[in-house]
Each structure stands twice: as C-alpha cells, then as structure tokens.
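Do me a favour: review this protein, sequence plus structure tokens, and tell me how the chain folds. Record follows.
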Amino acid sequence: MEILMLLIACLRSKNSLPRECALNTDEGMDPYVRLGRLYLYSFNKDASENPLTEVERKDCAAILDMKWCPVPIAGQAFLGLADAKGCIELLNLMELKNNNYTLHPIFKKALGQHCIALSLDWSAGQAMRATGHPLRIISSDSKGHLHFLAVDHSTPSIHSLSDWKAHDFEAWIAAFNYWQTNTVYSGGDDGLLKGWDTRKQLNKPVFTNKRHLMGVCSIQSNPHQENILATGSYDEHILLWDIRNMKQPFDDTYVKGGVWRLKWHPVYPHLLLAACMHNGFKILNCQKPLEKRKEGSSIPVSYTLHSSLAYGADWSRLCLTPTKQTPQHTLSPSDDQSNLKMEKADMSSVNLSIGKSSETLASKSGYDNRSQETITEIADIYVPLITKESDPLAGKLEGLTFVTKEPARTKTVNLLATCSFYDHALHLWKWETDQLKPKLL
C-alpha cells in the first residue's frame, strides 16, 4: 500500500537564499526571480529497491518553508507554504482516480510588498490537544515582521489577525508554543530570541534573550513535554530551554554547523533531528537533560556526506512494520569511516543497515554534475544511516516497533528524509535500532 508523503521543495533560482548570499528585498530589487519547485512523492514501504515514486511536480516561487497541517481542515489534508513572493499558500491534497493524488492550490495570502516569507508554523502541535481550538498560523518575513493568521475551516482561507515588527533584520523563524498557543516565539538575524503573547499589545515582547551569539534560525516547541523549547542558530549551538526560566538554557550542544531546522520526533519526546548546514544532519538524544534539567545531550547519529548546505530534515509519521528484517552487519576496522562523523562515546556497537545503493554515498562529484532536472533520480536514493545500539530504557512507546526473532528485544524503525541546497539532493533514511522489549507490568 502506498502512503503519500511530501518530501522536498527545491530552489532553482538566480538568487540563492543561504546566509552567505544575503537577502536583498529593497524597493528596487525584484524578489520574484527566485524560482522553485514543489515535489510530491508516494512512499511504498514494500518496495525496498525503489520506495519513492514521483506523483507530481509544480513550478512555483522559491519555497522557504512548508508544513502539513497536523489536523484536517474541513475533513481534508492541507499543506502550508511560505514563498519568495512573500505569500502564505494553502494547498489541498486531493485524491483523483486510480489512487492518484494532486496538491490543489486553495488560497494564497500576501504578507506584504517586497518581502520574502521565511517560515510558518501551525498552532496544532498535537491533534488531540487542538480539538475545539481555533487553528492559527504564525509566519515570519525578510523585513523582520511576524504575521499572526487565522484559518477559516469553512472556506478554507486565512485572514490576518495582527502583524508587527519583531526584529531589526530578517525574522528567520517563527513558532508556536504548542501547549499555550497564544504564545509564539521568533528568532532573527539580529541574534535575538523573543517570546510574544498574541492576546496583548505586540509592541513589546514577553521576553528577549541574547544567549545565541548569531542569528536565530530554528525554534520548535516539544509537542510531547510541556515547557520545553529547542532553538538553533548560526552560532552552531542547539539550546534547550524551560520556558518558565528563559534566562539560561538547561542544555547546550555544539554541532559544528549553523542550525537551520530542528524537528522533535513525532513519538519519542527525547529525540531531536537537526539540519546543520555546513555539518550535515544529526539526531540528538536529549533524554538526560529532559529528565534532569542539566546538560547531557548526546549525538548518536550524524551524516555529513551531502556536498552542500544541509537545509531540510523531517521525521515521517508512518508506522513501519516490515515483513522481513533489513540485513545488518557490524562495521569492521577496514571499512571506510572517513565520512562517518560519530561522537567518541558512540563508536561502540555501531550497526549499518544496508540500503539500496551505498555507492552513491561516496560519489560527491556525481551530485555536482547532475542537472536540476535529475532531482527525481536523486530522490530515489535509499541509503543507510549509521547508528549505535540505543539505550535499552529509551523510547518505550508502541507503534514504531516490531518483535524480532529474539523475544527479549524489539527493533525500532524510524523513517526520515533530508535534503540539501546546492546539489538538490534528497535522501530517505531508515534508522533501525535494537532495544530491550519493555516488560509488561
């Protein structure tokens, strides 16, 4: 059975958008030259050789951020986009004949003139908590403004509730507190992290924090554990905060790359996925700091072979229960580990899941020679992810595990996708870890 997943939006622009190429949205400059493309793929968990099939592609303005709405709107699935034309757009996932699907544009709202929409977030962090609450969107733009939007379920459409100047330079990121959706957070190129109460006058933030040393470009509230906030910055640090004390973070992890995106795991509250620009992708295990409110996050998994900026990463919400196990072997001293960046403490018990093509991992030059039209070929890469044996006490929730031949253990299967900027590369990963099976009490 095929399950639809949106995995990538790419830029194919004259003016690129990393920080090295500063945004220029002055009156005399036209931001619309930034072109992009939206891809929709289906994922078939039973097709181990070619799990991805392109369903649709749409040429459009460059896409800076996109997120599926966690709850249905008028009973249907919707995608929200933030684009280089300074617009927030809603697209409806529509089923056509013969199990075909399309993303149908429903509504587009311009945030302002000569600006670029840089981020968006939905107020429904967890569907079961969002029931009965009005659905909202928070967005940020290249002029430092935040835009608080209401979603009309009946149309569906969006309209502005308020907008305000939040930062002196680009407001790279805006996000909700998923537990108190009247509270939103923002991060800007001015290096400031700010909190706002949308019920009050928005000319003054609830707090302003200068702990990050450079621009703040990623923020996400933990949807599983109240009062927990993760932030990332160009200063190459990921910070964990207890929102009841925003003077100092309780955890600080140096990841050696600007942190463009952070995503908490959809099931396990202690796993945090990070896209770290010049230093690839990392998964943080935050169990120790979350339990003890002191530093101690580890990095059990990382991947640094993308030949350009690591800009996009997200977990799948799928429950994988494969009928047969993926073969594994343990890395030997003869294996080439020059590009496997692991923490020293994590070098024991390293397992490698064999995927479709490990050959593509070593061929950086192959990406450089590909044209923009070959992205679907890159998107079919189903490569291994390096991991260590996980903590036996970690992640006991059911739904993402299946019983192996060993009755005392279970195998946890996680699916995630990453993409990078200049090489237009998309990777789909399957991360498998063994852990002790929880005992029934």
In short: The helical segments are 127-130, 287-292, 359-362, 364-368, 375-379. The chain has five helices and 31 strands. Residues 10-22, 24-28, 321-408, 436-441 have pLDDT under 50 and may be disordered. Residues 287-292 form the longest helix (6 residues).
